[in-house]
Structure formats: C-alpha cells, structure tokens
Amino acid sequence: MSEKKIPYKIYLSEDEMPRAWYNLRADMKVKPAPLLSPATGAPMTAQELEGVFCTELVAQELDNDTAFFAIPQEIRDFYKMYRPSPLVRAYCLEEQLQTPAKIYYKFEGNNTSGSHKLNSAIAQAYYAKKQGLQGVTTETGAGQWGTALSMACGYLGLDCKVYMVKCSYEQKPFRREVMKVYGASVTPSPSDTTNVGRKILAEFPGTTGSLGCAISEAVEVAVNTPGYRYVLGSVLNQVMLHQSIIGLESKIALDKYGVKPDIIIGCAGGGSNLGGLIAPFMGEKLRGEADYRIIAVEPASCPSFTRGKFAYDFCDTGMVCPLAKMYTLGSSFMPSADHAGGLRFHGMSPVLSQLYHDGYMEAVSVNQTDVFQVAEQFARVEGILPAPESSHAILAAVNEAKKCKETGEEKTILFGLTGTGYFDLVAYERFHNGGMSSIIPTDEEIARSLAQLPQVD
Amino acid sequence: MSEKKIPYKIYLSEDEMPRAWYNLRADMKVKPAPLLSPATGAPMTAQELEGVFCTELVAQELDNDTAFFAIPQEIRDFYKMYRPSPLVRAYCLEEQLQTPAKIYYKFEGNNTSGSHKLNSAIAQAYYAKKQGLQGVTTETGAGQWGTALSMACGYLGLDCKVYMVKCSYEQKPFRREVMKVYGASVTPSPSDTTNVGRKILAEFPGTTGSLGCAISEAVEVAVNTPGYRYVLGSVLNQVMLHQSIIGLESKIALDKYGVKPDIIIGCAGGGSNLGGLIAPFMGEKLRGEADYRIIAVEPASCPSFTRGKFAYDFCDTGMVCPLAKMYTLGSSFMPSADHAGGLRFHGMSPVLSQLYHDGYMEAVSVNQTDVFQVAEQFARVEGILPAPESSHAILAAVNEAKKCKETGEEKTILFGLTGTGYFDLVAYERFHNGGMSSIIPTDEEIARSLAQLPQVD
Fold it and tell me: What is the pLDDT of residues A390-409, one digit of tens each?
C-alpha cells in the first residue's frame, strides 16, 4: 500500500477492537518462574493468593498455558469510553529529525488517568465486583495507578481505598483531588489506620512514607477487611495480560496498512506498558513467525535490566509480598530522587525478565536530563506533553532514528507513549531552572543491595 | 440507520475532515454591528486594525459576506495532530439518567492545551508567520489561551510573549511551565516592561493584576515592537470563523449516521466555543433549511446574555480596545471569584449577540455549585474530568435530558465539551471541602456598571 495513505492517526473502529487479551506466557518455551511464599519458600498456591487477590485474577496470574482470555463485555464497553487509543505516525518528528526512519507511537494518555494504567484497573475492578466484593485497596506513589483505579471503581460503584505515599499526598494535591472526584478514599501513608502504619509512625514520627510501606498498609487492610482484596498496577502476570490490549490494537492498526515494525521500544519500570505493547509481536517472535528488535528503556538511576541480577527477590521493600524471580537491584535498593516516579522500582516483571534472560529483547538505560530534553523537543513538534516515564521511550526511538539518518536505513520504529505529563510539571519546572541532575548509582551501591537478596535454593 | 450502530465515539477520517471554515455572518440577515474606534466613534478601518492585528486576520474580521474560507494546508496538517476531535455518544450518561434522550458531545480536550482554543491559536499564529512577523503578544488569565498560543507558536517557530495575570502566574505555576515547554516567554502582569504596567505598579504597588491590564500590556508591546502583532482567543469574528471547525466536524459525523440534533448546547464566555459548535447548524436555521433549539449557558455570576444589555461597549476593562456592539454587563462589571475563569467576561461575541437579539437562540444561567456537582457525576460515568467552563453545558444538557425523561420525548441533544479540568483542581478541591459558593450579582450591581456604558448614538 502506498506510504502516502497512512494518516497522522490511526483509530480502529469498534468492530476492529480486540475481543480477547493475549497471554504471552502461552508461547514462552521457558515459563516465568512461580511466585514463592516468603514464609515457606514454596510456590504460592491459588488458595494462598486468593486471600490477597480476587479469585479470577489469581487464575489469570497462574495460567501459563491459555493463549487468549476473552475480554468481558462490560470491560469492552468501558474500553470504548477511551479506547482505541490512537496509533500516531510521527510525521512532524520525522521531519524535524530529517530521518528516513518511519516512526509510530501508540498514545495511551487520552484518558483522565493520563496513562495506560486504566487498562488493567478496569479489569481488576471488574473481577472484584463480579466476585461480589465490596471494595479494593491499593497503594500509589506518583498517582497514575491510584487515579486509574479510582476511575474504574467509581464507574462500577466499588469502594476504593488508596494508600498514597505521604510526600506525594502533600506534594501532589491535584492527583489526590482527581481520585476524590471519582469517589476514592485517599489516606496518606504511613497512617494510623493499620498496624504497620502505626508501628512505622511510632518508630519514625516525621517520616514522609515510602511505596513499600504503602503497599504493606494496603495489603494489611485488604487481608483483614471482609469483602476487600488488594490490587496492583504492574509487575504481575495478570497486569501484562490486560495490558496486551495496547500491543494488540497497535498490531491490528499496523497490519491494516501493511506496516511491519523493525524496532519496538517501551519504557520499563515494573514492565506493564512494555509487556503490553510488545505482547503480540513477541508472540510471533517466540513462535518463529517474525523477528523484531525489542528494546526496554530504563532510567540510569534505576537500571534493573542493565545492571541488576536475575534472581528471586521481594517485590516490596517491606518484604511481606511473595518472592518473584526477576531482574532486580535488590529490594533494599533506594533509587535517587528521579522524577519518572513510575520507573523507580527495584525489580521487573517476571515475564519480561525471563524473556530478557533468554535473549528475546534488549535493554538500554538513559539519563534523566537527556530524557527531559527530548520530551520538550517532542512536545513542540508532536503537540503532546509527554510523561517523564514515556519520554524514556521517546529518547531511545529518537536515537534509533538518528542512527537511520547516518546509515540511510528506512527502518520502521514503534514506541509506546504511555501517558501525559500534566501532573509532572514540578519536574519540568526543575528542568527549566537547571535544577535537574542525573544521578547514577555506583557499582558499590548496587552490590550492597544485591548482597541482601533472599537465599532461595 | 439502526440506532445500535452508533459507536461510542465517532472519529472522522482525514478525508472527511473539513477543508474550509464556515463564516456564519454570510448567512445573517442582520449582520453584526461593526467595531468602533474608541477615539472617533467611527467604524474601525482595516488600516486601523492592521496596526494591532495581522493583515489577513483583519480581512477575516471584516468580511461579512464570504461563506467559506479555505483552511490553508499547513493549518490542516497541524489540525491532524489533534483533530478530528471525537464526537461521543454519551451512552453511560444516558443510562445513568434513565432518559429516552440521545446525548452527544463534541470533546475538544484531547490536546495538551486542554481546550478548543488551539483551533484558533494555530490559525492566528499561521497568518502571523505568513506575514513574515517575528512574533505575537497576548494575555492569558486562567491559561488555556496562553497555552494554546504557545503550542502553535512553538510549532511554527514564532516568538510568543504572554502576559499572564499576576495572581494566576503565581497560583497556576503548572500552566506557566507548560507555556515554557513550548518556548513562550511568560510575564506576570502588571510588569515593568510596559508603560501601562509601570503606571499601574506605581499606583497600586501590591496589585495582583487583572485581565484588562494584561490586555493593555500585550497590545502596547505589539503596537510598539516592529514585527509583532496582538492576538486574541475569543469574542472576535475571526475566532468564531476558526472555531467553526468544531461544528463542521460535528455535523459531518452526525450526518454520517443520519442523526439530526434537536437541541444544541454550549457554554458561553466570549462565545468562541459556542459560536464554533453551532455555526453550520445555525447556518441551516438562518437559511430556513432546518430548525434547532440552540442554548447558550452562562454562569449566574456573569450573566451577560440573560441580564445584560445589547449595546456598544469596550471589550476590555482598560477601555483601550475598540467598542463592540454586544450583550454586556458593562466593562466595569467585576464578576465574583468564579472558578470557570473562561466564562468571566462582561461581554459576548457580537455575532452571537446579534443572533440572540434576533431570536435565533436562547440563553440560560446556572449556579456554580450545581455545575461542579454535575461535573463530578459526568466524570464518574463518562470518564472525562471536565473543565468547569464545559460543565456549564453538561448541566444544561442533563437538565434537558431530565425533561425528556418526564415527557418521554426521545430528543437528540448535542453539547460542546470544550476542555479538561486537569488545571482546575484547586476549584474541585474547594468544591469537595464545601468552600464553594454561587454568588449572583444584585440588580443594583448590574445597573451600576451598565450606567457607565459609553455613549454611542
């Protein structure tokens, strides 16, 4: 088909939208390692997990074989409110770069939560509602996930208790207000509503909290309150499953125009966006039907793929959650204050970790100041103010497009633009004022936290 | 065509997008009255206007006869970055209201400026660039217009000087930062960069500024700096022309599905969104080809249509701009602190004023607390956090839909959802805290400011 016919934005019609999520694990020769009980060291059973998570989500979590899960009609209806997200041909960026590369991005920011997180939030809230639960609990740091979950729960009439890291609660009052618009209760963590919160407050009276502590509070409330379960926005296999909607829509849109990407790029924190974007493409690669270069982009301040270790580790700093086998910097690793809050996680999705370990994908790390520079460049030519997280992917895509300029290769690049930066303007302000730095952990720091990895067989 | 086939969101393809703006004035039997010179009281000539505005925009401003203006290819390309905006069938809202009415809204918030203002900003910046100018100046209060203009200028490489009312500059640092991302210079007004600014600062050292003062500063800089002109985001005829893209897209989308609205609703401050949304529908009405109920919704705190007078008045509180014949509360009218900043204007588009005067449209005023209540209800079922301005239209649409429920009539309602509320969360917070009120001016207050209208034959 003629190149000229590709529009700036490709929207699928409702008929073209995916009706099933794709479970990448079904096509993996080496499956991701199971979650282990922190108490016994044995694989977590469905029964153990169901104390914390919704029953149907546990089934999704443990299922390494079923390739497609039908998306329930109610979720598909919700998706229609803000999906399909546009697949954008970055004509303006290409022109600015004077590159022969063809650049596409899948933009997930056109919803009030401002990111792709809503794709899994509605699924998790739906299964909680279906199970007859009264509500769900969760934690949020920067606030994207908490906002997304609040929207999903507000829509379904489900109670939503969000534990928000206290410093974010105070510094990001707007995120907090959006959650309240959607009817969520938002509690600054640590709080006196839980045992763990009270204990930490007694020990560190002035603490502004941490994600690890907020997770522990949310889990405690879920486990001890009848009719409640805990939900999580990244890392888990079930989240990768729900987020496959990103890649499936992208592939349908590209296939319509006969376009096949050479390189697929996504930012990687816990891996939910990257895992979703690459899912159907990686499936083809695993089945030997096609080949793609797949690149994970992480911040140099928190480089779990590029400088971490593939090992069992705790998912939370509080060490109460199950152990996952993943690329990790150690659960005691404290990343420097990086404004891409969504990428400040010491570990990585077990699915993506296994794929990276087996050589199916690459990873690069980039510096924060370079990220903000390219974010601003992108905003001016493509009109979208990107989230700092998403801008990691932009930078890698721009770098690949520049290589094409040097070599003259007309490669097709697809990257994930996970969200908008409307709630990240404090970071943009710091960038404008020259107060932003790129702090990279020393080898010693990483070695120190890796030395504390739990001993598993 | 079967009702069932209407999708949640209708997107036009690039081929279907309008190629010309529609000039409503061409079909008006009684044309809007001309702008008058504040110095001589005579109609402003093109030559006089060209000292302030770009030449081609002056031509558009004064042309009451040409029905269609071709949209230059460069502007159409820019439109493709964020248009077509979706026409949404509000299935979820209809279900919640249990109304037989069919509700559609045209959503203009899916761009980084967060509102419809970008439609005219790119047009005005384009003509400035085409004229070989170096830059443009403008004022901004709440910040939507300043952001939109910054985006357009950033894209075209045009210098952009924004005078931002000082209290907004300080209270809305995020709006300010977005403008900086796009390369604009943002000056808190009053400033020491202009004569009028220095004069006001000397007189009122602690002042936090006003829109009237910011306009005066922006105009002064434009008039006195070679290669610069002043641009404005509402009220003017040229702005109505550019914003007709909203209504044209809406009509093409509805026509595709054989849908004809019975009622068309828009919020009205200066009138740019309402004028744009209704343009092609009002055209049919003026030509006697169809009939529509058209409703302008204004805040009870600033009720220019419903309690103002149709008379010549200054557009700015500084009384330096031309006189326009419009519905006005008097240029000295000070609306109470209402959070729908975009609707706090004492006057109204001369085009819309004439149409209202001639009985072609209706107007209602609504209370702020009711507006925020419906905004929150809308956010929960439709997933979009609306701007306070836009929520005035939501309230009127919901009220009409409730009437349909009572009467059983299956009316089709179209309203304009002009933007998102991401930068209005201070107002939402006040609403949640119970600190919001609906202050309505007394008859005496309005009479007092109307008594100061300029004497024009």
Answer: 999 999 999 999 999 999 99
Which residues on A lie below 8 Å from B382 (Cβ)? Answer: 81
Residue B13 has what pLDDT?
94
Helix (H) or strand (E) holding A103: strand A102-107
Q: How far apart are CA B60 and CA B66, in angstroms?
A: 9
Query: Residue A420 carries which DSSP code?
Result: B
What are the structure tokens assigned to A238, written together? Answer: 């079930």
Omega into B280 within 30° of 0, i.e. cis? no
Contacts of A180 in chain B (CB under 8 A): 428, 432
Query: Strands, DSSP E only, in B15-133?
Result: 20-22, 68-70, 87-89, 102-107
Residue A223 has pLDDT above 90, yes or no: yes
Closest CA to A15 of B86, B95, B6, B87: B6
When pLDDT is cut at 50, 70 and 90, the band that residue A338 belongs to is: low
Band (pLDDT 50/70/90 cuts) for residue A4 is low
CB A23 within 8 A of CB A69: yes
Interface touch A11/B11, C-beta < 8 Å: yes
Question: Do residues B420 and B389 make contact, with C-beta atoms less than 8 angstroms apart?
Answer: no
ipTM score of complex = 0.92
Residues 6+ apart with CB under 8 A from A15: none
- To 10 degrees, the CA torsion angle through A401, A405, A409, A415? 10
pLDDT, position A2: 44
Q: According to the model, what pLDDT value does residue B228 have?
A: 98
What is the predicted pLDDT for the residue at B142?
80
Nearest-angstrom CA–CA distance, A165 and A183: 19
* Encoded amino acid at A453, one letter: L
Pick from A4, A111, A385, A429 the residue to mutate for testing the B interface (most B CBs within 10 Å): A385
Burial A107-137 (b: 16+ CB within 10 A, else e): bbbbbbbbbbbbbbbbbbbbbbbeeebebbb
**Spatial separation of the C-alpha atoms in residues A375 and B387, rounded to whole Å:** 26
Distance CA A197, CA A190 (A): 5
The pair of three-digit structure tokens given for residue B179, joined into one six-digit string: 């403008």
Backbone angles phi, psi at B97, to 5 degrees: -80, -15
Find, among A312, A246, A297, A300, the residue nearest to A275 by Cα.
A246
- According to DSSP, the β-strands at A87-89 and A9-10 are antiparallel
Does residue A3 surpass a pLDDT of 70? no
Closest CA to A235 of A138, A332, A165, A157: A138
CA distance B82 to A443: 45
Question: Residue ranges of chain B with pLDDT lower than 70?
Answer: 1-4, 317-318, 337-341, 457
Contact A154 B380 (CB under 8 A): yes
Encoded tokens for A71: 């998306």
- Give the ranges where B51-130 is alpha helix by DSSP (H): 55-62, 73-82, 91-97, 118-130
What is the Cα–Cα distance from A315 to B110, expressed in whole angstroms? Answer: 35
Report the SS3 class of residue B68: strand
Q: Are B262 and B413 spatial neighbours (Cβ–Cβ below 8 Å)?
A: yes
Picking from B327, B298, B332, the residue whose alpha carbon sits closest to that of residue B311 is B327
Chain A residues within 8 A of B384 when measuring between CB atoms:
111-112
Interchain contact A204–B (C-beta under 8 A): no
Residue B168 carries which side chain, given as an amino acid letter? S
Summarize pLDDT for A255-304 with one digit per residue, the tens: 999 999 999 999 999 999 999 999 999 999 999 999 999 999 999 999 99
- The answer to whether the CB of B106 falls within 8 A of the CB of B250 is yes
B163 close to B191: Cβ distance less than 8 angstroms: yes
| Shortest CA gap A170–chain B (Å) | 13
Gap from A448 CA to chain B (nearest CA, Å) = 39
Task: Give the residue carrying structure tokens 């003017």.
Answer: B236
**Upper half-sphere CA count for residue A31 (Cβ side, 13 Å):** 13
